[in-house]
Amino acid sequence: MRLLSGHVGLTLVELLVVIALLSLLQSLAVPAFADLASSMRLTAAVNTLVSSLTLARSEAIKRNARTVVCKSSDGVICTKVGGWEQGWLVFHDPNNNVALDSGETVVLRVAALSNGVRLTGNDPLVHYVSFTPLGKPQYMSGAFQAGRLTACPQADRPVPARQIVISSSGRLRTLRTQVDSCP
What we know:
Shape: elongated
Helix content: 25-40%
CATH class: Alpha Beta
CATH architecture: 3-Layer(bab) Sandwich
Number of helices: 1
CATH topology: minor pseudopilin epsh fold
């Protein structure tokens, strides 16, 4: 049997180069992964609200009566303070007062979002969205209600955001956008 006379292994310099390359790759991958996770949370929040709005519209058409989506921090009453991220209610509103009264049917309760996403509405949609039996968004006063709900991750810097656009006919669509900050 013949013996080999060489040493097998890595030198200290080779090992340090490998460690340096791995740390460089990790420093590049972690922020990208964080951005991906933030984008997924944002998409999930928008999809939840879009499905709630779609449900409210279809319930209004099916029941032939107004259905309302309103902000609710406790899942019991509508609130006019805070953002949509605190949760919301979808309820049948036959008396057209845009308030959840006793005896009115709650179709859906959505709990607060706990993932650092902010959901805000512009002036027409800041407090509630109400659908008529024709599936059109309408204020309690009878004026049409159209606008945008914006979802963004909380940050004091420019961040990607999503907007839910509600047209005067009740059609919903989502847009990708950028906001300067999302406090």
